[in-house]
Amino acid sequence: MPRSASLTHWGAFTADVRDGDIAAVSPMAGDADPSPLLGNLPGSLRHRSRVTGPAVRRGWLESGPGPSTRRGADEFVAVSWDELTELLADELQRVVDEHGNEAIYGGSYGWASAGRFHHAQSQVHRFLKLLGGYTSSRHSYSLGATGVIMPRVVGTHDDLFKRSTDWNVIAEHTDLLVCFGGLGLKNTGINHGGTTAHPARDALRRFRRRGGRLVSISPLRDDAHGESDWLAPVPGTDVAIMLALAYVLATEGLADRDFLGRYCTGWERFEAYLLGVTDATPKTPRWAEDICGLPAEQLVALARRMAAGRTIVTVSWSLQRVRHGEQAPWMGLTLAAMLGQIGLPGGGFGHGYGSMNEPGLPPLRCRLPYLPQGVNPVSTFIPVAAVSDMLLHPGGTHHYDGRRLTYPDIRLVYWAGGNPFHHHQDIPRLRRALGRPDTVVVHEPYWTAMARHADVVVPSTTSFERDDYSGSRNDPLLVAMPALAAPHADARDDYATFAALAHRLGFGEQFTEGRTAAQWLRHLYDTWSRELEFAVPSFDEFWAAGSLRLPTEDGLTLLADFRADPVAHRLGTPSGRIEIFSADIDTFGYHDCVGHPAWFAPQEWLGGPRAQRFPLHLLANQPASRLHGQLDGGAVSQASKIQGREPIRMHPDDATARGIAAGDVVRVFNDRGACLAGVVLDDGVRPRVVQLSTGAWYDPEDPADPDAMCVHGNPNVLTADVGTSSLAQGCTGAHVLVEVERWGGALPPVRALEPPVVARR
Ligand SMILES: Nc1nc2c(c(=O)[nH]1)N[C@H]1C(S)=C(S)[C@@H](COP(=O)(O)OP(=O)(O)OC[C@H]3O[C@@H](n4cnc5c(=O)[nH]c(N)nc54)[C@H](O)[C@@H]3O)O[C@H]1N2
Ligand SMILES: Nc1nc2c(c(=O)[nH]1)N[C@H]1C(S)=C(S)[C@@H](COP(=O)(O)OP(=O)(O)OC[C@H]3O[C@@H](n4cnc5c(=O)[nH]c(N)nc54)[C@H](O)[C@@H]3O)O[C@H]1N2
Ligand SMILES: [Mo]
Fold it and tell me: What family name appears in the similarity comment (predicted)?
């Protein structure tokens, strides 16, 4: 591999580098289905939106730390690296001395970039632990509900993705793939840490050639790749559909009662609910039809088809990123248990095929090199999506997974490698929350909205401006990432920033252990290779070769061990079995998550009263044109924009009814906020559904007004900041009700990619 090779979360590539920037990229040879997102890389290293040097908000510099409504609107002042280190170290020390380490919020959620050593989350968390600790966050925006419900009912959530049924097993054995949330290939380009194999498209081709059929249950036709049976329900009603399918299986003698008795607990409690014994509402296909809009006959036919062959029920991750998001994966698992094929090749349950390039890919037989993280002396944490709540309500309490948690009083927010203006819901509320702490620190390569809302902006290198290596648990290659270019302007590695801070704060030796970044790379590799049960080349040989192939566990079937021997391989649940009824959850007494999977009407859905005011259901899904907000200025992302705005897809009938034409700019709004977007018409979108992906950089028309319209199309100005339920408190950003109207006024310019003014002193 030539020296200009590197790795991103969406694939490995070789680059032509000219004038310190990536000029062109080619996918790594051998990638079966390279991600189009590689096209966002050229021009990204010297892009005008890069942070060129350390900067401090003028109000903070002149008036000192304290709550402020000026975050996001104030001017920045350039400071030297020495000044920045001194200011920041002193402020960290002040907060620790006056308020204790708990007053630092270091959850710092976000994807950052590929790289085992320079990974921003690993660096910031290690640094803050050595500082004496910080309030942390649990779980992810990706899998907030799953991360809590699935360990309780199947004993794991990780194994559902990392030890899932292999794509090859599906291609060879599955007759029917029933995909709740579809099986879109737009998402399977990506895996955290980097990915070099993209087998999904080819596996689906082989599956179809063998006669396999795919049923895509999704409001969007293109959530299924290739030929499939498309069922387009009302969004948010999948649990009702699953219950109706379960009802047919239970009442037509198609449920595998041996499997339910041997491998599960609580079937009877659930059956009483299913049949309406406990609530006088049998969950019949007719009942579900009124909720989901799919004809009852279609549901009956689907249930019978599912029982007639080898079937996988797979639930996309999006279905748990909504209010009551615990229910869809739990009910999907229950439905698969009723079919009795869990643990059989090509049958059973899946979670996230089509969500990530992870389910279906064989896991490594070893771990990857890792930076030791140490222990956080502070035990206070929040469910990750409770960040605004925490900042707004110090001392407030909330339910979480059977406990009652109290919010700490946060004085300093530290972010490195994530963008809350990308990931968090209800941006107007987030802006008010970010006004509360004394200090907001952000490490960023780019002037994202989060950087613009910081008091202290620390310019980071990108992953292409430093040596590193990376890989992921479900990819066979460890890939060397030699720097492609020198750091842009005055940017520094996060490691160098933390090392300087640690030295000034008196724990430099512990943080660096006396190693430079280059020495760490070698050290982590050498330590790792000594722990392996097989031999690998020396670090120098690996670096020269550019990549290293690691052994994988091929041909897995999810829960095959458990099926073969449920005693020896008992699950990590209280019963050791799949819990269709969870006595623990039942005892929590939550009104919004009971002891068995159940249908709860959401707040943001077309069947509820709110839809009279905001009659369109917006899907804020993952963008096909980039990873989250990363490289929004890249060519692929920019090519998707309409008059510079993020595209919103809608059904032609909904557009006509509002006097809207393709290519128009529209205002998308509800009672929380508004944004502009550019219209794409598509009859592959269910009527009364619109789709506006996440990731357009937040661009408030008036930066001083937290309620300002976003002129660029960030859907998180519209979404509700509420947890999935008292159980998991996961992110619910996938769905929101809106209205759309043609924008008749003058078009405000998009300024998100223009760097803010940074004054010289
Ligand atoms: N409405 C709605 N909201 C959602 C979702 C949804 O479906 N709907 N999806 C959610 C999901 S699943 C996720 S995972 C989140 C994603 O949310 P995030 O992970 O926060 O989004 P990214 O844009 O990837 O942010 C990563 C940031 O790290 C920066 N970065 C990259 N490399 C480095 C580095 O080396 N050092 C430093 N310091 N910074 C670096 C990038 O420039 C970028 O700004 O969004 C969530 N938000
Ligand atoms: N290109 C690209 N790929 C990505 C990412 C990215 O930013 N860009 N992000 C990655 C990350 S961090 C994550 S966590 C995963 C997330 O993976 P997911 O959460 O699965 O991804 P989404 O694109 O949000 O949703 C998938 C599809 O679910 C459908 N859907 C939404 N609501 C409903 C519903 O109520 N019912 C039904 N039946 N279908 C519904 C939508 O049509 C949507 O296109 O994606 C990963 N892949
Ligand atoms: Mo995610």
Answer: Belongs to the prokaryotic molybdopterin-containing oxidoreductase family.
pLDDT 10s digits, 616-645: 999 999 999 999 999 999 999 999 999 999
Rounded CA-CA distance 409/389 in Å is 11
Q: How far is the CA of 419 from the centre of ligand 1 (A)?
A: 5
Q: What is the CATH number of domain 56-139+369-464+490-515?
A: 3.40.50.740
- What is the tens place of the pLDDT at every residue in 446-470? 999 999 999 999 999 999 999 999 9
β 76-78/55-57 pair status = antiparallel
Q: Which amino acid is at 302?
A: L
Closest ligand 1 atom to Cα of 140: 14
- Residue in 37, 161, 316, 732 to alter for ligand 2 test, most ligand atoms within 8 A of Cβ: 316
Parallel, antiparallel, or unpaired for β 456-459 and 5-8? unpaired
pTM > 0.90: yes or no = yes
Tell me the ligand closest to 293's alpha carbon. 2
Q: Which two tokens stand for residue 39?
A: 């096209």
CA atoms within 13 A on the CB side of 121: 18
Q: Does ligand 2 come within 6 angstroms of the Cβ of 110? A: no
* CATH number among 3.60.40.10, 2.60.120.200, 3.40.228.10, 3.40.50.261, domain 146-364+561-588: 3.40.228.10
pLDDT confidence of residue 225: 81
Q: Which residue's entry shows tokens 């090519």?
A: 639
Average pLDDT value for residue range 557-585? 98
Atom of ligand 1 nearest to the CA of 458: 38
The letter for the amino acid at 366 is C
Check whether 2 has a pLDDT greater than 80: no
